[in-house]
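HUMAN: You are asked to prepare a plain-text protein record giving the amino acid sequence and the backbone structure tokens, both parts labelled.

ASSISTANT:
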Amino acid sequence: MIGYVIRRLIMMVVLLFLLTIAVFALFSLLPGDPARLTCGKACTPSIIEANRHRLGLDEPPLVQYGKFLSGIFVGRVFSPDSPEPIQCDAPCLGYSFNRHEQVLTLITRSAPVTMWLAIGAFILWLVAGILFGIYAALRRGRWQDRAVVSVSLIGYSLPSFFIGLLLVFFVIIKLKWLPFPDYVSPFEDPVKFTQTMLLPWIVLAMLNAAFYMRLTRNQVLEALGEDYVRTARAKGLPERTVVVKHALRAGLTPIVTAAGLDLAYLLGGAIISENIFSLPGMGSLAVSSISDSDLPLIAGITLVTASIIIFANLIIDLLYAVIDPRVRVA
């Protein structure tokens, strides 16, 4: 197990290094002039040149990448020749000259919203998907099974933005069951926080809950037909023990794998949910940074979200090894 963990950690470090190269190349070496994009409306050649020097774009690409990488570990200084140089403390992901703040400060301010949104949606779709999937498998061929399959098919077919708009119109505007979203920290006002996040959780979880219902149902049905399950029933074990300890554990491996892969959907779907419900998270920050052509902020958000996905997949690999010891030799 220790060797497996070490191999995965080395692979993660390599991926993070390659990620920094990809992000730097994507936002620094592609056609286009970031100095021109950050110039604003009153743009002159002298202002563009000053922006290029301030962003460090007048240096060779290798020097730019070296400063970009070292800034993550030791920080860096922007506009060192100006009367008021800008100190970006480590880990420095860049400086947003549009907002006059460090990129990491902006991300840190909006990350908790996205974190709570992702955690709540993940728990909701995982619990609902697994429980209803098991329930449908145990009622195979009955009306309960057909109802769960039909609901999952409908949930899998409807786009997230359509579900979100329907919930806003009926639940908030028409029926007034919930107030308009106004985000507060769960530590300040738990009730208001839950009221604000409930509908975004449902919107973000709907599609994946439907997928996990079908996946869990199929995995449990397949496991229930195995010889070791029939043997467990023949020994007189309780049905709950047979389902949870034998059938579900055997079918848990693909569910855990799918959960890790779906983290990318979580972060992508957060953009839709946050904009529909006006949540000040990383999704809304990403949309506004794109509309403002704030390249340092876009690069920082890309680097952070991709790093989160890499770390999450490391955790999934470790859980996978705990559930199925055979993967440790891979």
